[in-house]
Amino acid sequence: MAQQKIRMGMVGGGKNAFIGAVHRIAANIDGQIEFCCGALSSNPETAKTSGESLFLPEARSYGSYKEMFEAESALPDDVRMHFVSIVTPNFAHFEPAMMALDHGFHVLIDKPMTLTLEEAKKLEAKVQETGLILCLTHTYSGYPMVKQARQMVKEGKFGKIRKVCVEYPQGWLSLPSEKDGNQQAAWRTDPAKSGISGCMGDIGTHAAQLAEYISGLKITKLCADLNIVVDGRALDDDGNVLLKFDNGANGILMASQIAAGEENALTIKVYGEKGGLEWHQEEPNTLRVKWLDAPMQVYRTGHDYLSSFAKHNTRTPSGHPEGYLEAFANIYRNFASTLAAGLNGTTPTPEMLDFPNATDGVRGMAFIENVVASGKSTEKWYDFKL
Q1: CA-to-CA distance for 24 and 20, rounded, in angstroms?
Q2: Minimal CA–CA distance to 220: which of 252, 243, 242?
Q3: Where are the beta strands (DSSP E) in the chain?
């Protein structure tokens, strides 16, 4: 079968939507994906004008996602979209994702996957029922040096993992920006749109996923302290969580959006018996590797000594910065390559299959609900329940 581009539709991401543009750039970087249709706003008029501004064909710029799924599923196989990218706020993830799967479309969706754990479980069950693929955009797992870190841990370079420390401080919500017309702040601090958690749902989930992804371990217990620092907020904007993992390792997770002066200072440190590693999102091409009985090593993106997973997710020669957009694009490319393999009757490589999925989405929602429950509990340790 001749190779073909993977065709993408989009729900949300129209005018004034920051993340929609990021998704479209990421999808376009490798030339594998064609943006062919969209329902780009919950407002039909805005959806249409957004489609026009992005040069979508008028007939495939839809006023609602329901209209899009029905119309696209009626098109010939060689025309209709293959998957939908859902880039709406949290409350508007579940219904379009379920409908897309029911109409035979694969799904790529922003995290957290749904508004509640119950919805996440239903969505995972629907993925299993349909045999379709769901990809979750935990962006930071797409960086080459995160891939390298994961492989070194997986190969036992550091021995048994003993401690995981991950922190994600931001400062952009240090003031009540949601009251000053900041749309990003408004929906993230609104329980009806964001869910039961603010900071932990928004960026704490990234930190938790990265901790599990690199360490290869699963969180089994936690002890959470959640805070509302800015007066008048309904959801947490800061928090600290002690962690226990399934091999007996312990950990610390800090997430804050009131750390004034910080941008996106996501950092992770993982320690084993023989040594450890350290990675900073704001310096993503560098992985520091520390040994118990030898000098520290500095691993850099783009070199031959890296793992196949790091190389697969690297585009430029060493010394050329690869950042957030490329990491986002790695998730899109791996997802699209897996879809293409299915269409062509070939087997995707392990490197292609390396993207977050519905099971990760369920764990992310479970993290949110367990952290909130732990924060309200008088128990020191709270079991991580799925």
Answers
A1: 6
A2: 243
A3: 6-11, 33-39, 83-86, 106-109, 134-136, 161-169, 219-227, 238-245, 250-256, 267-272, 275-280, 286-291, 297-300, 382-383
Reading the chain (386 residues) residue by residue, the pLDDT tens digits are 457 899 999 999 998 888 999 999 999 999 999 999 999 999 999 999 999 999 999 999 999 999 999 999 999 999 999 999 999 999 999 999 999 999 999 999 999 999 999 999 999 999 999 999 999 999 999 999 999 999 999 999 999 999 999 999 999 999 999 999 899 999 999 999 999 999 999 999 999 999 999 999 999 999 999 999 999 999 999 999 999 999 999 999 999 999 999 999 999 999 999 999 999 999 999 999 999 999 999 999 999 999 999 999 999 999 999 999 999 999 999 999 999 999 999 999 999 999 999 999 999 999 999 999 999 999 999 999 99
170, 257 contact by CB (below 8 A): yes
CATH no. for 6-136: 3.40.50.720
d(CA 193, CA 318): 42
Fold of domain 143-316+363-383:
Dihydrodipicolinate Reductase; domain 2 (3.30.360)
Measured on CA atoms in the order 113, 61, 17, 320, is the torsion positive or negative? Answer: positive
**Predicted TM-score (pTM) of this structure:** 0.96
Order of strands, sheet of 286-291, starting from the edge strand that comes earlier in the sequence = 297-300, 286-291, 275-280, 267-272, 161-169, 250-256, 238-245, 219-227, 382-383
Distance CA 370, CA 367 (A): 5
Same topology for domains 6-136 and 143-316+363-383, yes or no? no
Alpha carbons within 13 angstroms on the beta-carbon side of residue 353 total 7
Domain residue ranges in the chain: 6-136, 143-316+363-383
For residue 63, the 8-state DSSP code is S
- Measured from the Cβ of residue 142, the count of other Cβ atoms closer than 10 Å reads 25
CB count in 10 Å sphere of residue 316: 12
